[in-house]
Design a protein that fits this description.
Length: 146
């Protein structure tokens, strides 16, 4: 593995750590900052643009976002990549858990590596895997331009 790729992997790992810590600390600005300006997040069958994040995060339950080491496939020369990262979310109020994984794309721009897209897949007790279902009636709908 060449030095440039090692540096890119460390940078993306730190980017994803900022996302998890930002979500845990309810710090929307940090969460938005890990995305490319035209990036988006997908869960519950909807796609959310960055402008939707403050409402989306405000409606989400609060708690601990424990993520595993990402499995990354980065192209340092092109400044693009893909990855998968496991997640265990523990609700702060009742310690209920949600588990699953993120499927990501990454891009490198003027401010370094950023998430281009992040899609959530939930792992169900039944053995099913899906993009989720509405878990909170206050969850906002994405804006029309998402």
């Amino acid at each position: 593995m060449d030095q440039a790729l090692i540096e890119d992997i460390i940078e993306v790992q730190q980017l994803l750590a900022r996302y998890a810590v930002g979500m845990t600390k309810d710090d929307v600005e940090t969460v938005v900052d890990v995305f490319a300006p035209d990036g988006w997040y997908s869960a519950f069958g909807d796609r959310y643009a960055l402008k939707d994040f403050p409402r989306l995060v405000a409606a989400a339950p609060k708690g601990l976002f424990m993520t595993g080491q990402p499995l990354l496939d980065l192209d340092s020369a092109a400044g693009t990549g893909t990855g998968t990262q496991t997640l265990c979310f523990v609700d702060q109020t009742n310690h209920d858990m949600r588990i699953g994984y993120y499927t990501d794309t990454y891009t490198r721009g003027p401010h370094g590596w950023r998430l281009q897209t992040r899609s959530m897949t939930f792992l169900r007790r039944s053995g099913e895997r899906d993009a989720g279902r509405a878990h909170d009636p206050t969850r906002p709908e994405p804006s029309a331009a998402s």
